[in-house]
Structure formats: structure tokens, C-alpha cells
Amino acid sequence: MINAPLKRLLFNRYFKRGGRKFLNASHSSCVRLKLSAMSRWRLLGLPGFDGLLKEISIGSSINTDDLLPYLCRESSQDRLWVNYCLADAYHRAGNNEYAMVFIRRAWNFSGQNEKFLPLLVMIHAAVGDIESIRAVHKALGMKKASADKVSAALAHFNSWQYAYAVHNKSDEYCYDFEVLDCISQLAGKYAFPVRRPTSWAKRKIRLAYLMFGMTHLNSVIVKNSLTFSSFHDASRFEVTFFIPDQATSVLERKEAAENIRKIKSMGWKVVLAPDSFSEVKSLHELARFIYESEPDILVTNAALADFRHFYIASLKPAPVVVGLCQGPPPQYIAPSFDWSISWTKHPMMDCPTGCTLVNGAVPLPERKISNSAAKLHFGIAEHDRVMMSCGRMSKFQHQGIWVAILDMLRVHLETHYVVVGLDTPPSFLEQLLTPDIVRRVRFIGRVDDYHSVLSMADVVIDTYPSGGGMTVVDAMAMGIPVVSFKNNYMRMFSQADWSPAEEFMGMPELLIERGDFVQLGNLLNKLLTDHQYRNEMSVMCKERIHQTSGKPEKMVRDCEAVYLKLLQSRALDFDRIKNGR
């Protein structure tokens, strides 16, 4: 059996060093067992085990029967460490089929000890078994919730939610009602007393917006919140924006501080979660602030994109909850919400609550820098053509569209392709970027002055199979032709495979069939070579986006009408109950 001093040695050597850094380590930087440390097994009277581990880790063949004496140790703790070390060694060698067997056994022996979680995640990610990673995080979240460890439970549920995004770089989300019920029950212990609805006939309707994304760079969701702050009717509504992120983490970001200033300049209040070493205390305090402001409606803008938001909503700080469905319903709308508002048809079709379709709109940008000046800033000749795509990393994982675009570069020798928002190119791109075009493909990460970068584009190509929204709108508003794909409504909504631009572009001339990259190439070829056609499309894009998406005040008025109708309906329901009908 492992003696106590050796247990402490192993723990200190492998886990305490780095503390939280180890537990929160990424796929590539996770601290792992060192082979030199494995030689400590000699202290157990197992002199051959470290040699076997070394051979396994470098890919040498061994007689697997030689492992049986170690795998059959009487002590479950001995077998835990034997299996953990074997999992690590086989993972180093790239044999994740064997590694998976040993890490699962170690995980069971440990009683789901989170010290062993990073290696378990790495091995399952290596074989593409994302569902097992999700299952582990869900189980740990349930376990933490049963122990009333709110922050830890929410953290694991968030890891469950984003497993595909983190490990597969894909936007795949689904509802799990056990997870949602668990969070609701966790919050139920601390929920606020229900207030009877009060008449708002002689006062302003009080709205509380729960803001997501304030600490994110160039957040589209925050831009939508700024639209509401700019156009809400102050004669009828009293609006407060609540931010669940702790004050210091928000205010240290220049963009966040500026956005708060903009909201306040419109006459609205902004309340940040107070700083605290206890995250759950900070969340409860913010929920108390909401409750004490006596809102008629709590409006969430991404309640399931961060389960802290859903936890706050589940504390019942407001009598009515409305969710803004600005993307995949499993990221935005809980079935327990009273109503939802969607900007596009496909998410609305899958929304689990009553839902109203409102045409999304934002203030449209004006071009601040000329096309030629923007190109020169990035060292591109004025007369060269620039194709551009913008979005998160997950939007650039389809090889087919890359092939079609790079083929255009081979045909048009004075054309460049600029990719904005992609820090790490997909692995398959290394083989596609041949020497004749590699210098004309440029990757730009997320930037502050996004519109100045966009200004150098002659043609914007929407991402595929997950299309964009704001990039399409901004480009068209600046007079840049946008090529996008039609949407397929005859399927369940998937953030990983949809094109919302069809609904607001108003440009059938620039929409192509899904996955038809030959048609994409033909259209790009025409836009790049036919100067007159490109100018015509530029003018039409600017005109039509102002018609479809350039009326943010109307969008806010339409949302206000939904709020008002919902409150009127609730008042009638309350009167019926009160009168015993």
C-alpha cells in the first residue's frame, strides 16, 4: 500500500504545484505527471514499473501481461495511481484508446476527484469523445449543487455547455432539463418572496436588463443593449442595467467603462455586481439590488450563455422574465421564462416559450476611412482587391469554403483574403496554403477599431456553415457587397449550421445555395472582375440594409409593445385569480 509520506509527496509533486492553475489548465498547458517523478514507484517495491512507463510513453512495444501485477494491487489507492500513470504514459505516446481505459478506471477509483479531471478531459478530447466530457462536468455540477456549492456547480455546468466549443471549436448546444432544474432548485433555497403585481397605470414601467458580455471585446450582445439604452421611451419606462460581473473586472476594461458611460448618458442606471471573494455572495447581492428596485420585468439577453445569469433569474427578483433570443435558444431562453423575443425566424421556431418575432435593428455605421487608406495601413496596394470574412474561430472550420476562396486567389493574382477574428487557423489550412498564395492570406485577431479594418474589404464573404449577423449588417451599411448563403429551415435550429443573413440582407442577387461552392466561386469571380457590377451591388447593399435593419427605434418600440402586452395579460390573470374566476 502507498504510505502516507509518499501520498503527500505525490500530491505535492503533481497537484499542489500550480494550485488552481492545474485544476483550470487548458488542453495544451495542463500540468501532468513527469516520468522522473514516476520513478518514485520504486519506493513501493515496484522497481520495474517506472521502466514500463518510460517505454510506453515513447511508443515502444511492451508485453501487456507485464502490467498485470501492478493493475492487480490489493490497495485501490495503489491501483488508482497505477492507472493514472498508465493513462498519462499512453496519452503521451498518442495511444488514447488504452489511455481512455486507464483514466476511466482511475476516475472511478478516485470517486470523481477533480485532481484527475484535466487528464481525463485531454484524453477524451483527443479521441473526439466530447459527450463523455460533458457527462463528467454535468455529474460534477450535480454533485456540487447537492453540496450547495453554487459557484462550483455553475462553473461545471458552464463547462458542460461549452464542451463542443472548447474542444471541437463548434457551436453545438442543446437543452438538458436536468441541468436547468438543478440550477432552479439550487436558487430556490435563496429565492426572494413573491411580490404581488402593482398597478403601473399611473407610473412608469420598470425594466431590469441583465447584461451579458460586458467584459467581452466588441460584443454584439452589448451593442444590442446599447441600442435599447438609446431608444427606450423615457416617458413610459424606467430602465436599469444590471451586470453580473464583479465591478473591478468590468471597470478595468476600457471598452466596458465607455459602454457604461454611454448608458448613463442616456439617463439610465447601471448596477454592477459588488466585488467579493465569494462569487455566490456577489451574485446574491446583485439579485437583491434587482429585487429592491421592484422591476415589473426582468429582461435577460443571454441567460443560458452563462449559467450565473440563469441562477440570478431563478432567484425570482422580478415577477416576470422575458428572454431576448439572440442566437441558439439553448444559450438564451429557459423554458421557465414567461416570454421571449427573437430577431430571426429559425431560433424562434425552436424557442420553448411563447415568442414574438421582432425585426432586429441597430444604428448603422458610417465609413470613417476610405477603402484605399485602409488598405495602405495594412500594406496592401490601393488597386489590389481584398476579400474578407469576420467571426469567431468556430465559424472558420469548414474546409470546403476555404478551398473555394483560396482558388480565387490562384486565379486573381492581385487579390488578398483577410480573416478577422481568427487567431489560430484550422489545422487543415497548412496543406491548403501553398507558396503561391500564402503571402496573400492575412489573419487579424479581434480588434478595437473593427470598422477601420472592415473598410479595406472590396467583398465580404459570410462565414459558413455558421453565418454572421453584425458583420453582414456593418459591411452592407458601409457599401461593401456581401456574399452569403441561403438558410435551411427544414431542420432543427443549429448555431453551427445556419445563415441568418437571408432574412435581413434583402439581396437575393448575393445569396447562394447552401454548400454550393461552385456558385460561390462564380459570384466572387464576377464581383472581383466586373467593376461596374461591384459598384451596383455596393449601392444596392447600402440602400437595402437601411430599409431592413436601419430602424433601431422601431425595433425598441416593438419590444416595448411586447412588454406592455405581457404585463396587461398578467394583470388580467391576477384579476381572475383574485375574483375567483
Your description of this structure?
- This protein has 28 helices and 13 strands.
- The model is unreliable at 1-43 (pLDDT under 50).
- The protein folds into three domains: 4-187, no CATH class; 203-357, Rossmann fold (3-Layer(aba) Sandwich), CATH 3.40.50; 371-548, Glycogen Phosphorylase B (Rossmann fold, 3-Layer(aba) Sandwich), CATH 3.40.50.2000.
- By secondary structure, it is an alpha/beta fold.
- A seven-stranded parallel sheet has the order 3-2-1-4-5-6-7.
- Helix 6 runs antiparallel to helix 7, helix 9 packs parallel to helix 12 (177-188) and helix 21 packs parallel to helix 26 (517-529).
Describe the structure in brief.
It contains 28 helices and 13 strands. It is α/β, with parallel strands linked by helices.
| Helix segment tally | 28
How much is the average pLDDT? 90
Stretches where pLDDT is under 50 for at least 5 consecutive residues are 1-43
Question: What is the percentage of strand-forming residues?
Answer: 5-15%
The main pleated sheet reads as: 7 strands, parallel
Portion of residues in helices? 40-55%
What is the distance, rounded to the nearest whole angstrom, between the alpha carbons of the first and last residues? 72 Å
What is the rounded Rg? 27 Å
**Overall outline:** flat
| Total tally of structural domains | 3
Structural classification: alpha/beta
- Spatial order of the strands forming the largest sheet: 3-2-1-4-5-6-7
Assembly type of the chains comes to single chain
Total beta strand runs: 13
